[in-house]
Amino acid sequence: MSERITVGDRGRWDAWLKLASVVCTVVVVPGIGWAFSVQHSLTSLQGQVALLTAQVDADRVGVSALLVELRELRRELANMKTDLAQRITRVETQLEKR
Question: Which of 88, 21, 47 is nearest to 13 (CA)?
């Protein structure tokens, strides 16, 4: 039961192969170019995200340092306020004694 390919069958196969070749040329090759373009865009976007992440981390560290400094200044201000109140009290006491 082996079937032989006849001359008419070869013509149909040639037509199908030509169609497959055209489809590959028109659809697949541009699709590959598009895939490379998208990959390049994603790689570029990944680099930008990494850069922004590093910048956010640096900003966070800077803000943390500022927060620590503000807390220290607040503590110093409270100490100065207490010291000034004590000095005023001493001066008042000295004036009352006179």
Answer: 21
3-state secondary structure of 1: coil
d(CA 24, CA 60): 52
Q: Which residue has the higher pLDDT, 8 or 20?
A: 20
Give the span between the Cα atoms of 50 and 71, in whole angstroms.
Answer: 32
Q: How far apart are CA 72 and CA 64, in angstroms?
A: 12
Instruction: Answer yes or no: pTM beyond 0.85.
Output: no
Please, are residues 34 and 26 in contact by the beta-carbon 8 Å criterion?
A: no
Structure confidence by residue, pLDDT tens digits, 19-75:
888 888 888 888 888 899 999 999 999 999 999 999 999 999 999 999 999 999 999
Give dist(CA 67, CA 78) in Å, integer.
17
